[in-house]
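Anyone? Bumping this.
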Amino acid sequence: EADIYQTPRYLVIGTGKKITLECSQTMGHDKMYWYQQDPGMELHLIHYSYGVNSTEKGDLSSESTVSRIRTEHFPLTLESARPSHTSQYLCASNGQVSYNEQFFGPGTRLTVL
Amino acid sequence: GENVEQHPSTLSVQEGDSAVIKCTYSDSASNYFPWYKQELGKRPQLIIDIRSNVGEKKDQRIAVTLNKTAKHFSLHITETQPEDSAVYFCAASKNPSGTYKYIFGTGTRLKVLA
C-alpha cells in the first residue's frame, strides 16, 4: 500500500547518544520534509528535500542533519541527543500528482533523558 | 519573512453549531491553501484545500473561503459533531513554480461540546 512510514514510533534514549529516525515513502514522491511538533502544538519545519542529493534547512534551527541518497528514503540524524530534543518528529512528502498535498507519516515520539 | 497567522488558538462550540477558523498570509505569491486536521495522537490529514483561482470550495459540512485581496482565508465547519474535535492547521504555499514547502499557521484547538 502506498504510504509514508516512520521508525521507530517511540524512542527513549540517554543524553549524548547518536540516533537516526527513519522515514520512507512508497508514493514515488520527490519532495520530503521533517517537522518537529510538541503534541498538539505548532508544526516546525526543520529540514526538506526536493530530490535526491538535495537538502535544505527549514525555518526552525535544528542540530539534526538529513540525507537524501534515495528518492524514497529521508533519514534524520541527531549526533548527540539532548533533553531539549524531546519532541515528536513528523516526516511528510508530496509530489506533482496531487497538486501540492503533503502526506504525513505517523511520527516518532522521542524522549531524551 | 513569510508568515501565516491563525485565529483563534482555541475554540469551543456546542454540538450542532458552526465553527470558523481564520488565517492571514503575508506572501502575495502564495497560491495554494490547505487545511489539516490532527486528532489526538494521530498524524495531520488534509481535509480541504483551495487554490488561488477559486474563491470558495465546499465539501459536505466543511468549506473554505479565500480573499486574495485581503490575503485571508477561512475554514467553516457547519453542524459540528464531537468527532470534529481536533487541532486544525492552515497553511500557505507557492506551487508549482515556487517553493513547495508549507508555511503553517499556529493551529486551532477545536472542542465540540456534546
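Late reply, but here is one note on the structure posted above: Residues 2 and 26 of chain B are 6 Å apart (CA to CA).
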